[in-house]
Amino acid sequence: MAVGIYVLHLHSAQEEARRSFLREAAECVDEVRRKKTERLKGTGAKAASLGAGMLLQKIAMDLTEGIENTDILFLEEDELLAVLQARMLREQTPPFSFSYEYGEQGKPQIVNFPKKFNLSHSGDYVVCGVSDGEVGVDIQKWVPFKERTAERFFAKEEWKLLQETDVEKRTELFYRLWSRKEAYGKYTGQGIGSVVGEDFSDERKWKEKKICFREQILETGYSLAVCYGTAEVLNSRKTGNSKT
Question: How many CB atoms lie within 10 A of CB 60?
Answer without folding.
Answer: 21
